[in-house]
Specification:
165 residues; alpha+beta; Zincin-like; 2 domains; three-stranded antiparallel sheet; 5 helices; 14% strand; binds zinc ion
Length: 165
Amino acid sequence: MKTPRLPLALQLAVMRCLRDKLAQANLKLGRTYPEPKMVYRQRGTSAGTAWLDAYEIRLNPVLMMENQQAFIDEVVPHELAHLLVWKHFGRVAPHGKEWKWMMEEVLGVPARRTHQFQLESVRRNTFPYRCTCQQHQLTVRRHNRVVRGEATYRCVKCGEPLVAE
Ligand SMILES: [Zn+2]
Ligand SMILES: [Zn+2]
């Protein structure tokens, strides 16, 4: 998959969304949480991922080109909420009540767990899995071993078993 060149206007719109939502959250929470690093190198079928320790949001450039408004309206707030929940509450369930509260009460965005995008252009050499600390991409071979019950994979950081998203 060739990574598309992202138009500067789109990157600026995404950054504006991030800064607006962060400012809104800091105001409501009475904090000064810093701006996360934004990188455009998420691969596979995930729209984006939040990397807690790195305090970084990775967005999928292929899906972002094809779903520009949805990225601004949903994906950026979704991943930002993961980082803010981690800052505010520590390690909790990825889409638990703290995350829903952060989305709906603080950021003012409907709390949907997943995004409905056409995925033809990014299908499919990995499958998204999750532990309690981050998202993982498993190869087709590993994914099939999990599905057949032949293997369980664990996160090397938190030690938790990976579950399919
Ligand atoms: Zn999520
Ligand atoms: Zn982990």
